[in-house]
Design goal:
With about 290 residues, the chain is of the alpha/beta class. It contains nine helices and ten strands. The protein has two domains: about 150 residues, HUPs (Rossmann fold), CATH 3.40.50; about 120 residues, Rossmann fold, CATH 3.40.50.
Length: about 290
């Protein structure tokens, strides 16, 4: 079905990049679980990358964009079959579309019409990355909506397994957009929110720093608590390697939310590490 056939009736629309890979299927399954938990619609998009036609050996050789589109239609049909027939998601709440172009550019353009985008994160070879880059990295730095990345390390379980959403405060002052989006997502899922900041293990901390940082975080979340009285909000300050602590945290929550300051171009090593190694989906908020 086309996007015009999706009767959203005011529901949020979740954009999902589907490419026929296991990663794309895991992204679609995760998006379906979120849609079910938050009363959202699904928008599955397959992007036929016509630039891939010149790269022999990385993809099945296809002679025309039309043939690539046919592959896309088949992949989308198989994905819908899985979501609707096997998982029981309502067919009328799934829209599909095939586009031709560069996946990052197309999904970034469409993201302005979605409340969330979900993509899989593959471990590409050096040659693949040289030609096609990373759709997940490119989309995170250019999307108009929050992007949820399903890492190669994660195998998302049923949404709400832990009934916990975490926001990682990786810079100071805390990323207000990440906090606000995180508490809305936790509220929509009927989950609690954990606001976590990691202090470096490489320096000796002044006496009282933990208490001061905790107090500062409490002041930042106070308005969120007031506006969301039915969503439990916990503040937690840890010390250690930020990537190790946050990857460990990802084993205990349903979603890890991170605010990013990209300048439109680059992602920090911490963000890239979480995208690759987190054990739960990672939501990145610009």
């Amino acid at each position: 079905m086309s996007t015009s056939e999706s009767a959203t009736q005011g529901r949020r629309r979740i954009l999902v990049g589907v490419d026929g890979s296991d990663d794309g299927l895991r992204a679609a399954l995760y998006a379906m679980r979120v849609a079910r938990a938050t009363d959202s619609d699904l928008w599955l998009v397959y992007v036929a990358d016509d630039s891939a036609l010149v790269v022999v050996g990385l993809w099945e050789l296809l002679e025309t964009p039309a043939q690539m589109s046919e592959v896309g239609e088949r992949v989308l049909a198989e994905t819908v079959q899985r979501l609707v027939k096997e998982e029981g998601f309502p067919a009328e709440r799934v829209a599909t579309e095939v586009r031709v172009g560069r996946a990052t550019d197309v999904l970034a353009q469409l993201s302005s019409q979605a409340g969330m985008a979900v993509v899989g994160r593959r471990s590409l070879s050096g040659l693949e990355r040289m030609f096609v880059g990373s759709t997940s990295v490119g989309l995170v730095t250019s999307a108009a909506c929050p992007v949820v990345v399903i890492s190669a390390a994660s195998t998302p379980e049923e949404t709400g397994r832990f009934r916990s959403v975490a926001v990682a405060v990786s810079s100071w002052p805390p990323h207000s957009g990440a906090l606000e989006w995180g508490v809305r997502e936790a509220s929509a899922r009927g989950a609690g929110l954990r606001v976590v900041h990691v202090l470096s293990e490489l320096v000796e901390l002044p006496v009282g720093l933990f208490a001061n940082v905790s107090a500062d975080l409490e002041r930042h979340v106070a308005p969120l608590r007031e506006d969301n009285p039915h969503t439990p909000i916990e503040v937690q300050v840890l010390q250690g390697s930020p990537i190790d602590e946050l990857v460990g945290l990802s084993r205990e929550v349903d979603l890890l939310v991170v605010g990013i300051h990209t300048g439109g171009l680059a992602l920090s090593g911490l963000v890239r590490g979480l995208m690759a190694h987190a054990h739960c989906p990672v939501a990145l908020i610009r």
